[in-house]
Design brief:
The structure is a homodimer. The first copy, chain A, is globular. The first copy, chain A, is built from 6 helices and 13 strands. The first copy, chain A, folds into 2 domains: about 170 residues, 60s Ribosomal Protein L30, Chain: A, CATH 3.30.1330.100; about 70 residues, CofE-like domain (CofE-like fold), CATH 3.90.1660. The interface between A and B is large, with 79 and 79 residues.
């Protein structure tokens, strides 16, 4: 198989339920060891937002939330829980669409997504929701440093969330935080087979790696909330930020 | 590694330059054999649109194109080649955005994408463009049947293209045709770890598999225009259609 381009996507199971201030980097390394797929040089470690948010204490109990008049009215229009709408709007810097039960917002970080990324699934107690990490790129840096410290291996880290898409049904995992790897592979200026210079193509590999990892993390994410991507060739980029993916307003045709 | 969830994504290199009426299924099987990764039962074969379009003769020489007054005016506004705009609009059933050099259309199949999927790269002669297959689900069926006939293996086929996304910079590969595998893994109604019934999540695995494959196909797609995804568990779905991904107008918040 010399010269064959191949990557492996390996789910990391057996990570215990995560509590605030857990040492996530260590739990990931230990779980990878335990299942006999220890972390190697150049692995990309993909981690779902949910467990990152939990270690960072980004949880809100809905019954403790005071609801503003605006959120109460919006909740009525959307037929959503008023406390939930309050939390969603508290995480937003603008409302992109609020119609037909859908609340699409721009998060304080600049992501455009449903419900500011506030989520009810895989949290104990029906009344608790998770928020996105305050700074997912920062979270990725901390997890990467910890894994590199524990293993002595050079790795990259990607933090993922599940987003819907305009125009296409269903959800895919995308990246909201990176460390050590650029979210883009820029092909602009490269020549194709026939010498044509590509003017547009910049592959959003951060999002593609996130989607690849979702295929092994699947449904019961709490049981497989992380994955290793092995064999993907990338350049180490110490200053990479997932937030570079956010489309600037002037380029946004669909806002 | 018992119980570890793992998938492999294997690029299929060595496929010769594709001409009209080439036996694509056979070329893929032969190339997979030759690089010592023959197709196995339950493999998912991912094929880029470009080589499918070429076998189907979906090529247009721009200098042969007669330009309508509307296309000429649009081309001037967009600062694009008038013949190219004529071809793009000929493939469209509506214009979604036409602003600042961008022409986002709804293709006759219903995909919303830049330039109706008309593309200049990796075609010989700077003057020739490729169009999307007329019926990508039908193309996937034919390729799948041929591969199953030649190998005796049960496989699924996904045809991919590279799309931009509203709100996020860069491009990802998504699926425009499938055969044998549903483009969705529907998790609605499933319970999470804590018994919470998920109401929304439907993973667009067709798109995620396409994105995973792009990671090994990469830049010089003509050299690695297909990939095998091995180890992903799926149910065979003989009536699956990628076109089910298209968001109906009434659900579309961003049209």
């Amino acid at each position: 198989m010399t010269g064959v381009s191949e990557i492996r996507v390996i789910g990391i199971g057996g990570i215990p339920l995560i509590k605030r201030d857990d040492d996530l980097g260590k739990l990931i390394c230990d779980a990878a060891e335990k299942q006999d797929t220890p972390i190697l040089d150049r692995d990309i470690i993909v981690v779902t937002q949910k467990i990152v948010s939990k270690t960072e204490g980004r949880l809100v109990r809905l019954k403790d939330v005071a609801v503003s008049p605006f959120s109460r009215q919006a909740a009525q229009d959307l037929r959503k829980c008023p406390q939930l709408v309050e939390v969603i709007l508290g995480e937003a810097k603008s409302i992109v669409r609020m119609v037909g039960g859908h609340l699409i917002t721009e998060t304080r970080d600049g992501w455009i997504c449903a419900n500011s990324g506030v989520d009810r699934s895989n949290v104990s107690g029906g009344d608790v929701v998770t928020l996105l990490p305050v700074d997912s790129d920062g979270s990725a840096i901390r997890i990467r440093e910890r894994i590199m410290e524990l293993t002595g291996k050079q790795v990259a880290v990607i933090i993922t969330d599940t987003f819907g898409r305009p125009f296409r049904l269903g959800h895919v995992d995308i990246c909201i935080g990176v460390s050590g790897i650029s979210p883009f592979l820029d092909l602009r200026g490269e020549k194709d087979l026939f010498g044509y210079v590509m003017r547009v193509k910049r592959a959003a590999i951060g999002d593609e790696l996130a989607s690849a990892a979702e295929l092994v993390m699947g449904n019961t994410r709490e049981k497989t909330p992380a994955a290793i991507i092995r064999g993907y060739k990338y350049s180490i980029d110490e200053s990479a930020k997932a937030s570079d993916i956010i489309m600037p307003m002037e380029k946004n045709l669909f806002r």
